[in-house]
Amino acid sequence: MRTIRISTLIAFVLLLIAVPALAQVSGTAVNSSLGRYVDSVNGTTANDAVRIALDGNDDLMAMKKEAEAAGVLIGQASQRERTSVGFESRQQVGGGRNRSMVVGSIPLELGGRIGARKEVAKREAEFAQRMFEEKERLLASDVREKFGRTLALAYKLKVTEDVLKFVTETYELVRENVREGDKAPLEENMILVELNRLRSMREKDEGGVRISILELKNLMGLGPESPLVLKGDFENLVEPLPSLRIATDVALQRRTDLQVLRASEAFADARIEQQKSEGKVDASVNLGYERMTENFPGRGDHMVIFGFSIKLPYWNGNRDAIEAAVLDKEASEKRLAFGELIVRREVASAFARYEFAAKALEIFRVGVTGEAFRNLEVIRQTYEFGGSSLIDYLGEQRRYVDYQSGLIDAQLEVYLSKVELMKAGNEPGLK
Fold it and tell me: Which among 72, 70, 143, 81 has a CA at the least distance from the CA of 107?
């Protein structure tokens, strides 16, 4: 028994020594920071954030320009190969015979070369466009995910500040009781330590919100100095879904990454036809004019040149290039098959994630958070009337913070699972 009393006395002395080093909070108001990050009237919604990102993200805009450039090249591919014109002059050394000649060559591009080249350009432009659309899908989902995570951090900050205000009021009450001699100075010091722990926690939470806001601005294509206040909450998240089979069928049609793979397969087909056309005979028509002169007055000949040249095919009919193009198509087919398997898995995974997240949220909402607040109120009142210890009260207060944070995490998980569902199905509401 004597040992216990000595330990208690030592702890009490150490706390008295530490008190001057602790920040004093008497009379300090705890103001909510939520308004700096969330505005229910003038804030930016998730839909607004996606729209700003799709309009202002420079990386996305670069891909859009590349897709437009590929589209312009379709017209260029329709042009016939350029006509060549040559000039030649021959002068006899020590004599009077001279010859001047102008000859032009017009390629005929036989064997469907123009059509094959144009088809390749069309497929390449389609591939670039699909890549741009896939980038849009990924960027939109990234923005929505970061928006939700930032919103969750902001609401967690509010929970910390609410509890900080709650503990500050308790501290003031205990401080008065200590002055009046109703409570021991040790209790005041214990609450002061908890109060400063919450103040430190609040600073860390607000730092996390600001960093997340900066990351969201970056995705949206905004500079760090640009103002951004969010608008939204985690209410009414749970809603019925279509069947997994219907969602999977729709995703297989809408997913832009699959459309990229299909465009790649069509591009490979066009390349095969182009290589086949390159392996056929081609010809050019030659037209020209020649003038021959001598050192005799009035002597000179004028001649018109007409002819053609034939471009012989490769000895193997361009077989190697055709075989390489065929292998590229087979690779595209394999990638498409694997991509469809991935889409099926992602849709099924998103459905499972949403189902269990919705159940967890409902259990948490009904059976945890409401009871946690009531428990905290009871423990606080019993502590104030001397029915429970300060340690019980502080422990319950910490559990309450954990419960509130857990509720926000559960809401965020439902939100993120909905974003994943939209991403997996490339739903119209995603962008």
Answer: 81
Helices (H) and strands (E) in the chain, counts: 10, 4
| Domains in the chain: ranges and CATH | 30-430 (1.20.1600.10)
User: Which backbone phi and psi does 102 adopt, to 5 degrees?
Assistant: -120, 125
CA distance 240 to 248: 16
pLDDT at site 190: 82
Residue with tokens 């806001």: 213
| Dist CA 172 CA 169 (whole Å) | 5
- What is the pLDDT at residue 302? 81
- Phi and psi at residue 314, to the nearest 5°: -60, 150
Contacts of 355 (CB under 8 A, 6+ apart): none
Cβ atoms of residues 205 and 153 within 8 Å? yes
As a whole number of angstroms, the distance between CA 74 and CA 272 comes to 18
Rounded to whole angstroms, what are the CA distances from 36 to 53, 154, 216, 218, 404?
Answer: 21, 9, 15, 19, 21
Q: With beta carbons less than 8 A apart as the criterion, state whether 412 and 149 touch.
A: yes
- What H or E segment, with its residue span, contains residue 103? strand 98-107
Which letter, b or e, does each residue of 285-298 get, where b requires 16 or more Cβ atoms within 10 Å of its Cβ?
A: eebbeeeeeeeeee
- What is the C-alpha to C-alpha distance for residues 332 and 130, in angstroms, rounded to an integer? 15
The per-residue DSSP string of 32-69 comes to --GGGTB-TTTSB-HHHHHHHHHHH-HHHHHHHHHHHH
Q: What b/e sequence results for 198-218 when a residue is b if at least 16 CB atoms lie within 10 Å of its CB, and e otherwise?
A: bbebbeebbebbeebbeebbe
Q: According to the model, what pLDDT value does residue 300 have?
A: 67
259: CB partners within 8 A, 6+ apart:
130, 133, 134
Say how many Å lie between the first and final Cα of the chain, rounded. 70
Residue 101, φ and ψ in degrees, nearest 5: -145, 135
Per the structure block, which two tokens stand in for 246? Answer: 């219907």
* Segment 138-180, tens digit of pLDDT: 999 999 999 999 999 999 999 888 888 878 887 887 788 778 7
The continuous run of DSSP H or E covering 131 comes out as helix 113-180
Could you please report the per-residue DSSP string of 194-254?
A: HHHHHHHHHHHHHHHHHHHHHHHHHHHT--TTS---B---S-S-------HHHHHHHHHHH
- Predicted confidence band at 348 (pLDDT cuts at 50, 70, 90)? very high
Structure tokens at 238: 């749970």
